[in-house]
Amino acid sequence: MTLVDNARRGRRSIFARRPFFTLALVVAVGYVLAAIFAPFVAPYDPVAQDFNAMMQPPSGAHPMGTDSYGQDILSRVIFGARYALIIGFFAVAIGAIGGLIVGLAAGLSGGWAEWALLRLIDSILALPSLILAVAFIAILGQGVDKVVIAVGLSMIGPFARTVRADVLQVRVQLFVEAAGLMAIPRAVIIWRHILPNVIYPLAVQVTIRISEAILVSSSLSFLGIGVTPPTPDWGLMIAEGRAFVSFAAWMSAMPGFALALLLIALSIVGDGIREEFDPKLRGKS
């Protein structure tokens, strides 16, 4: 049996051993496809108002009902997936890049610079991501782009901690010390030997943090300080439906279910990837 055959059988075994991972991955991919093709999938314009169809219950014309402005909730949920994933991916990218820079600097520097960076990381980790995001939103203002930046900045701490821990382990390895004894420039050592060994754990961490970023951004919108109306954001839709929950529960229930399902799917996918590729956890599975 060739190495290619072994690799293919290994890939199949991931899905065979983890049925919930497979199901969650299918759900997550479905959300991504819905977000990409939202203009073609959504039956109505997500911001179009029809005051003759306000707060209609789910029906054939409106499978998820309508809101207080007569907007089709299904269309807004579909477009909400686009905004949720955009905010989640870009916010995590900002957090990962910022965490990589801070973590590398903290792991490789010494003296007062290391002390200052460690205090910065500790101060970020001392507060929940939502509280930090609220503080950044207060400075930056509202809007999709501002939410992306605020959530991304609030996630630098966890990424920086992961990168620094990996750097501290890699820099004492024999191949790194040998490169230093050979008078190889420090920048080359970082680029060729240290960075490749910290990128992989960072990438695994990214898959886990996307669901957190989506939850934080939706929480900001729910509090009224994130995405602004009439943007089809799930958190905003849940907040708008609170006043009508006693007789039009679908206004909050539909986006709430969509948000919960995506968060659960992404969490299962992230945990599955981490357990599959982490040697310590893989031995226990």
From TrEMBL:
UniProt membrane topology term: Multi-pass membrane protein
Protein location: Cell membrane
Residues passing through the membrane, by range: 20-42, 83-108, 120-141, 247-269
GO cellular component: plasma membrane
Domain ABC transmembrane type-1: 81-270
The entry's keywords: Cell membrane, Membrane, Transmembrane, Transmembrane helix, Transport
Major subcellular site: membrane
GO biological process: transmembrane transport
N-terminal signal peptide: none
Coiled coil: none
InterPro entries in alphabetical order: BP-dependent_transpt_permease (IPR050366), MetI-like (IPR000515), MetI-like_sf (IPR035906), OppC_N (IPR025966)
Keyword Transmembrane helix attributed: yes
Family in the record: Belongs to the binding-protein-dependent transport system permease family.
This protein's name: Peptide/nickel transport system permease protein
